[in-house]
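pls design
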């Protein structure tokens, strides 16, 4: 076979492969060897067979992500109090900040009961960034000058935590104190 007949044979093979969508590989033989390339029919079948898996994976991912977002929006986080901080507190105060006087905390309730007057001074109250119209639980200790100080959390952070006072946090506090 001459060079011209090989080219003609290769062109005929290529045309036949394009007409047939069922041919998976077309083969051209030339002087330099055999050349194989995937036909458009094979490429189309590969794409179609992968698409359902990709679609299923995408649907599963979207359902999972929607579930996470829904749980984050709907489910409330449970009230959490620092156990060590509560145990180390001399008194736990429930009340509000007096906006008119710096460092003044108006006590509605205390644990143990009646441990303080209705109004107490809290050291560094202004540094806690609390809102005067909110009710708080404060684990405190007495200072040498008769004021109070919020108890530090255990190391490594050592911060002064104050908790929003609501039915849930008060119930958690009372459960913790009952277990003392």
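designed seq:
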């Amino acid at each position: 076979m001459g060079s011209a007949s090989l080219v003609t044979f290769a062109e005929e093979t290529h045309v036949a492969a394009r007409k047939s969508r069922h041919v998976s590989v077309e083969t051209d033989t030339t002087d330099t060897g055999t050349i194989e390339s995937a036909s458009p029919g094979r490429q189309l079948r590969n794409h179609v067979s992968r698409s359902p898996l990709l679609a299923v994976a995408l649907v599963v991912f979207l359902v999972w992500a929607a579930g996470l977002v829904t749980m984050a929006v709907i489910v409330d986080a449970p009230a959490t109090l620092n156990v060590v901080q509560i145990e180390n507190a001399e008194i736990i105060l429930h009340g509000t900040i007096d906006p008119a006087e710096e460092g003044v905390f108006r006590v509605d309730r205390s644990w143990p009961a009646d441990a303080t007057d209705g109004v107490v001074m809290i050291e560094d109250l202004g540094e806690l960034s609390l809102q005067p119209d909110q009710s708080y639980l404060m684990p405190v200790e007495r200072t040498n000058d008769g004021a109070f100080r919020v108890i530090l959390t255990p190391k490594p952070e050592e911060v002064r935590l104050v908790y929003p006072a609501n039915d849930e946090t008060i119930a958690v506090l009372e459960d913790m104190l009952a277990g003392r």
